Amino acid sequence: MALIVQKYGGTSVGSPERIKNVARRVASWRAKGHQVVVVVSAMSGETNRLIALAREVQAQPAPRELDVLAATGEQVTIGLLSMALMDIGVKARSYTGGQVRVLTDSAFTKARIVSIDEGNIRRDLNEGHVVVVAGFQGVDEAGSITTLGRGGSDTSAVAIAAALKADECQIYTDVDGVYTTDPRIVPEARRLETITFEEMLEMASLGSKVLQIRSVEFAGKYKVKLRVLSSLEELGKEGPGTLITFEEDIKMEQPTISGIAFNRDEAKLTVLGVPDRPGIAYQILGPVAESNIDVDMIIQNVGHDGSTDFSFTVPRGEFAKAMAILEQIKSHIGAREITGDNKITKVSIVGVGMRSHVGIASKMFRTLAEEGINIRMISTSEIKISVVIDEKYLELAVRVLHKAFDLDQVPA
Ligand code: ASP
Ligand code: MG
Questions:
Q1: Class level of CATH domain 260-404
Q2: N- or C-end of the chain: fewer Cβ atoms within 10 A?
Q3: pTM above 0.90?
């Protein structure tokens, strides 16, 4: 018997019929003798609807009241799912975040979990209940309802799994696992059996949006094994999904590269011919940071004749704003020219196996060169190599890299 925390997202509980399917799936885990805690999101579209409703009434909804409102979406789902479980003879009890006592700070709409009282949940589990908990929400010290930020029920599930020291936290979603890359671009993309937390964080931050990043960080920190599974597969025929775990728990020899991630949402800015002197990076990036623009890659060239070039990337939506800032400081920092390009994308290969293999970067660059794809920027970390290329080459780059690193082959 294991203690399992399962989380079902908005699509999985999007209609009464789907809620009944979830109930049947939960029942099948109970029937195998496991203890099950289920964390649910609001029915799909519901949180958006509630937020839109708030905006119709108050242009800038008061954060505390917005949380009171937004938290109702999950409350609907826990009631319905508990009923659906009872209807098929499974003992079930629902809890809002506040009833469990998921204690958070008071940062309304983006609260952080401080502690979880597992007393109620434990007691109900021991009495044979399935415990159904509203994700995305908690209460602060004063008893005010808080929410954890969009997508926050993943984090709720992981936090509850950590508090209960659950054997596994299963995230049920509309895909059957984490893939080597986006199957819409590479049909040969494969579901990964396992991936490490570090790799998952890199893949997620690069735009593979299966899980909320915060929940992955949380799970890594508190050593919660996470599994991504599909709630849309037929009962009894479901696959094993993808287990996100620790490097030392992965028995097989790791392939060098686990996956290829990409991010279309990038734009590049270049400051040409600035004086090569201390403080110049700060003078350029300081005003950008002050405007709350997230800078991703940064490159400064070797200086020549006392001047240098400086490039960085920002989210595409911030491109115009960042260009305006640079134009404004151009004469002050003594730059010759400002240029920009918002038709770029970032492609990255990710894998912990990189640590113990040489020649990965050169293989990546050769593969791209053979297709005539020009690399505009490069950055690396211990387990990742990213390149910025022209947007029009994105799909080609992902396809040839996927093949070059044998990601379409099942590892021996
Ligand atoms: N219902 C919330 C949202 O839509 C939380 C979640 O789904 O994880 O953001
Ligand atoms: Mg979600």
A1: alpha beta
A2: C
A3: no
